[in-house]
Amino acid sequence: MSLLSIRLHVWGRYALFTRPELKVERVSYDVMTPSAARGILEAIHWKPAIRWVIQRIHVLQPIRFQSIRRNEVGHKASASNISRAMKRGDLAGLQLLVDEDRQQRAASVLTNPAYVIEARFEMTSRAGPTDSVGKHLDMFNRRAARGQCFNQPCLGTREFSAGFELVKPGEPLPARSPEVETAELGFGAPRDLGLMLWDIDHAAPGRPSLFFRARLESGILEVPPPGSDEVLR
Amino acid sequence: MSALTRRHDFVLIFDVSNGNPNGDPDAGNLPRLDPQTNHGLVSDVSLKRKIRNYVELAKGGEAGFHIYVEEGAILNEKHRQAYTALRPDDEKAGAVKKLNPKDDREAVALRDFMCANFFDVRTFGAVMSTGINCGQVKGPVQMTFASSVEPILPVEITVTRMAATNEAEKKKGEEGSDEDARADNRTMGRKHIVPYGLYVAHGFISAKFAERTGFGEGDLELLFEALTNMFEHDRSAARGEMTTRKLIVFRHESALGNAPAHKLFERVRIDRSIGGEPHEIDDRIGNYAPARKFSDYVVTLDRDDLPNGVEIVELM
């Protein structure tokens, strides 16, 4: 771990890192995705001048699932209805009626997850002359140490909030109890988690999803760097 | 309305007696349970629904306090439909097939319009199919699942109705029994109740997101009012008696906050009261009678050594 990296311990009661192929009745990935980890860091500190690069995700707890079914709404707000209401100056008919638009959806969520995110950041082309890696690193460390955030970070979806604590440089990682160190987390032999979402390319047209082959080795998920051959389009 | 400038975190403590706080559609409407611990759950969306319903009741469609995700049909809407049916020459709005905002500017205008008019969009956000960055409005208020402080024991109660739904059902009843005439047209049903459960939910209010949606101090007051009163206006056969028991708000001085939320939440401690003495809730507590009322619990709030810039507001 270089001096310019950060480590953040995150945990929660539940987590839902939705697999893109199973998102009507949502099923979580076994482990936090790099894009979810990036979202957590951005909830604490982000500026257009920087870009977070997730390096490693440590899994601290066994992977356990639970199913939750909820009543959800089937529709999104329609832009055309809103602009019509704006023109008319009248809100009639703009509401969504939940009872007439019910969808019951199950979600397979992770229970009691805990991770350590290891990440660094890069400067983007929007960085100004006053932006430097050191400045933003300090800002992040200061905020994370004090528990400050832009908004409370979450584990996949907003109802599953994340507690977070900075692991200061030189400090050991939160201990993993020996009974957690099973083959499920890749102790003994690496465990193949299959193709996992790496991130979404927001800059490219159509916003394509990028994937990588995820492997858990002794509880650690190595994340390939941006632009590497391991990131699949 | 100027937006909120300080971050808030809150703990909502509510209880249920002889009722079902939140049915599980996966389990035949049994109260929600965490299968690993048997602790009861109430989903975030269930609580948000009650907040919306309360605001709709309290503000009654006052300008700026409409509710976007509404429950049930609105009577006025039905009246309007009757009018439009009678006067078809009025402006026909349904002609446009598909419309997306032309540019970012229009998307922002649409978003601002929704935030200004609808309390729930301003508070919880909404997904708008604007086609630009998915047009999501993230609301400042984020709530978690409420979980009971001890395992709950759902009880199934069978009830009867002295009437049949239809002719066929009545006939079936007549064939079944000959000795009891009363049983002829009787239907049986089930209710699931939790004898008693004390639940805790955590909530977060981001001042930075409030800036974006225009969620102001007045909205915050209304939200807290809703959290304290929402169960009073959600009485039904299924719910039993639900009451907000405590609402503890941690107010940070700054927008980004002055302390980690989990550290603040740890200051709220719930113990069982046994013979007037607080006992930690652990495995040994099983030897005592189960909790059946709020006074079987002691809620303590640690106010010592508060981090700088954090203020505790106890609203109940």
Automatic annotation (TrEMBL), chain B:
<dbReference type="InterPro" id="IPR006482">
    <property type="entry name" value="Cas7_Csh2/Csh2"/>
</dbReference>
<protein>
    <submittedName>
        <fullName>CRISPR-associated protein, Csd2 family</fullName>
    </submittedName>
</protein>
<dbReference type="Pfam" id="PF05107">
    <property type="entry name" value="Cas_Cas7"/>
</dbReference>
<dbReference type="InterPro" id="IPR013418">
    <property type="entry name" value="CRISPR-assoc_prot_Cas7/Csd2"/>
</dbReference>
<dbReference type="GO" id="GO:0043571">
    <property type="term" value="P:maintenance of CRISPR repeat elements"/>
</dbReference>
